Amino acid sequence: RVDIYLNALKVILQIISIVVFKLYIIYLLLDVAYVLAHNITISYIADKQYPFLKEKAVLTKDEKKDIFSNVSSVFLYKVSRNIVVGSDNIIMSMLVGTIYVGLYSNYHSITHTLDSLIALVFSSFTAGIGNLVATATPQKRYKTFKSLQMISFWICSFVCVCLLYLTQDFIYLWFGSDLLLDNLTLLAIVVNMYLSTCMRPVWAFREGTGMYKRIKYITSFTAIINIVLSFVLGKYLGISGILFATSIARLSTYFWYEPKILFKDIFEVNTLEYYFEYGKNILLMVVCAVLCYIPISLINTSIIGWILKLLICTLVVNIAYLLKYYKSEEFRNIREKIIYLLRHTFNKY
Predict the structure, then answer these.
(1) pTM attached to this predicted model
(2) SS (H, E, C) 258-298
(3) What are the tens digits of pLDDT across the range 212-231?
């Protein structure tokens, strides 16, 4: 609730600052003020609810060394990840021009919003995963991971198919045809979205297990590969080349490295099963995209047409995944948890 209230207040004040003062610096300063207010509020609430946090304890030399090692690992990982995410716009402005960065920002706003919502869903599992890793057997951990992976595959395929067929119409209806990017760039955006969304269960377990020491350098390699390939591919393919470079950098580094560590140390399972399931879901998503294309190609670009396309994507993808997972153990586990939560909620009232 603190996040919701403070974020709502920040957005309202930012709107007022732009309308009244017309100064972008005030808009940015409100972002800083939001972070400070958020941290102070959370700290105050934590001190009230957990007074033992104020108690001072003397740490040993080994404990201090371990804390420093963990914090430095997280810092290196976060910095490298921000370079991977943030370098695309800089390279775009250098190679293809600032105007194309503006065109891409419209698409990025859509994908960033969707990615943030999906990240919020999976981040809610982090605390439970930490407890699960500390108390459960590797078999139970893997069972939980498979359920989360099913959810991510389902959400990812639905989001990516919708992005593929609805984004261009959305931009056209919202801004006009002059602000559209080519379809190859759209495909690169969808590929990056897929790789980001389908890694969410792995990242949720990474956060829950705190395995940053093992992966702190791999993201640095991702950042280096991304920058080098972005200049090479961007020179020949433009924006799409820069975005495909990000996909290649991810696939060649943490896409296979993080699951490998997770499966070996936490699940004690061979990663081949993970990649086999990954391949089957990519194939299913492609089949869904082909099935959607047939009726969607007959619909004109309009608001009503956009709604019809959304309906087609929703029905095709969700029916396909329901048929795939309906009899699976993962689906049964999720269904049982949802029924339990609903019953528990209704019993309270």
Answers:
(1) 0.81
(2) HHHHHHHHHHCCCCHHHHHHHHHHHHHHHHHHHHHHHHHCC
(3) 777 778 888 998 999 999 99
